[in-house]
Design goal:
This protein is an alpha/beta fold and 215 residues long. It is built from nine helices and eight strands. The chain has one domain: P-loop containing nucleotide triphosphate hydrolases (Rossmann fold, 3-Layer(aba) Sandwich). Helix 4 packs parallel to helix 8 and helix 7 crosses helix 8. The protein binds 2'-deoxycytidine-5'-monophosphate.
């Protein structure tokens, strides 16, 4: 089993940027588990599977071949879907498929498998609570609501208004925090870090301090 650094937190807190940079600094493998849930949502949309159809969604998750490539690119059944999984529709769909226990079981098994033979920085919602409760380092990365909206705006085409984006983020968060299966919650032994007003380098430095302490 490799070393696991778990980074959990709500959408727009800066997890992806931080986890990717941290992994490259430590020469660990970066794993974006949100991309896995997004892949299943994309597949469901393409195949016309309802977000309520738990049995079919579970079957999709069990059969999907998801590859997380270096630099954060994502392949689904051999197709590069990196850009297709960042739309507002897929974001909302991912949050819905992620509430289904059977989908989570399939994806969590893969996440554990990935870390069997390598050191990872893994980001998501339940990494420190459910996937790796014994992770070496756990960070709960947060940011104030306004900052989270601004960051997401930077990631998306300017066709989405700040108000719309704020509403989408709030809805997704409420679903991710309120679901019965592995809800988004800070692990008891996670370090809470609010990245509002900090540069990525400042956040990385704080996490590296925690990593050094845990060695
Ligand atoms: O991190 P993200 O925004 O790409 O995640 C997309 C959705 O997937 C998010 O709304 C919640 C879900 N998710 C999850 O439930 N558990 C994870 N470990 C990662 C993501």
């Amino acid at each position: 089993m490799g070393i696991v650094i778990a980074i959990d937190g709500p959408a727009g807190a800066g997890k992806s940027t931080i986890a990717r940079l941290l992994a490259s600094r430590l020469q660990y493998t970066y794993i974006d588990t949100g991309a896995m849930y997004r892949s299943i949502a994309l597949l469901a949309g393409r195949q016309g599977v309802s977000m309520e159809d738990a049995a079919r969604l579970e079957a999709l998750a069990a059969a999907a071949e998801i590859e997380l490539l270096p630099e954060g690119r994502v392949c689904l059944n051999g197709e590069d879907i990196t850009d297709s999984i960042r739309t507002p529709e897929v974001s909302a769909g991912a949050s819905k498929v992620a509430a289904i226990g059977g989908v989570r079981v399939a994806l969590v098994a893969r996440q554990r498998q990935i870390a069997e033979r390598r050191n990872v920085v893994m980001e998501g919602r339940d990494i420190g609570t459910v996937v790796f409760p014994n992770a070496r380092v756990k960070v709960f990365l947060d940011a104030d609501p306004g900052e989270r909206v601004r960051r997401r705006q930077g990631d998306l085409p300017s066709t989405v208004s700040a108000e719309e984006l704020a509403a989408q983020l709030a809805e997704r968060d409420a679903r991710d925090r309120g679901r019965a299966e592995s809800p988004l919650v800070q692990a008891q032994d996670a370090v809470y870090l609010n990245s509002t007003g900090l540069t990525p380098d400042e956040v990385i430095e704080k996490i590296l301090e925690i990593v050094r302490r845990e060695k």
